[in-house]
Amino acid sequence: MNNEHQPGRLKGRVAVVTGASRGAGRGIAIELGAAGATVYVTGRSTREQPAQSYGQIMSLSGLDTMPGTIDATAEAVSREGGVGIAVRCDHTREDEVQALFEQVQRDHGRLDLLVNNAWGGHESFDGKFEMPFWEHLLSHWDAMMDRGVRNHLLASRAAAPMLVRQGHGLIVATTFWDRDRYLRGNLYYDLAKAAINRLAFGVAQELRPHGVASLAVSPGWMRTELVLTGHQTDEAHWQERPALARTESPRYLGRAVAALAADANVMQKSGSVLRVADLAREYGFTDVDGRVVEAFEIEDSP
């Protein structure tokens, strides 16, 4: 079926997208807005108060400030036809996460979709991805697990009572997955993504009796703002960089999440890890440039 040309298919639905200042979260929020949803755009980066924990990656990327804010994303959601609501939330703090979902309950009395995307891995990035595990800094564990996987758990835990009471809803985790192949060169990243996948699976088992679905969605290599900066280009000129030929826009992932949110039979997928490229074929959507981008696959070990 083709959901791409049904702009109002999520009208009246309420979504929370965590970590939506930039990258995957921004792409998802905008596509949910294009489908008519009300989207709570959460994260720590606002125009008045940028997040303070990205100094290392900013230095490596030659940036004075991190790109993107929740305010700008919320405005983009509204421009696309949805309702964007920016809420500053540090997703490592249980009290702020709880307050976020209490606000959603007060404002709308319902929640149809939670997208767990807030991720701390960039905070410890030192420019070295592929190394033996004994040479990687242990700080990567804290960034990816305590400020990554734990973020997913905190938001799911706070949202679950509302979803259970209403007897329907969907939790989507953003992840990376290539049919359980090992992500060579970064054991911490491999463990974090495997934990996210297992968390989505476990949550699905516990929420299934209540009519609530949980699953994980894996994009390929996305042209996030930081990727574009690293290749000294932008979204308008990325095709001039042959190294980016295999990339996809964050909105490709967003279209996958919007299609899942609109699927009345999404419970049949609960507990699964799904690749964006496979969902594009199933639901009939394309990336922003009209391509069906093939799934990113890890090369086999020699």
Automatic annotation (TrEMBL):
InterPro entries: NAD(P)-bd_dom_sf (IPR036291), SDR_fam (IPR002347). Coiled coil: none annotated. Gene3D superfamilies: NAD(P)-binding Rossmann-like Domain (3.40.50.720). PANTHER family: DEHYDROGENASE/REDUCTASE SDR FAMILY MEMBER 1, DEHYDROGENASE_REDUCTASE SDR FAMILY MEMBER 1. This is NAD(P)-dependent dehydrogenase (Short-subunit alcohol dehydrogenase family).
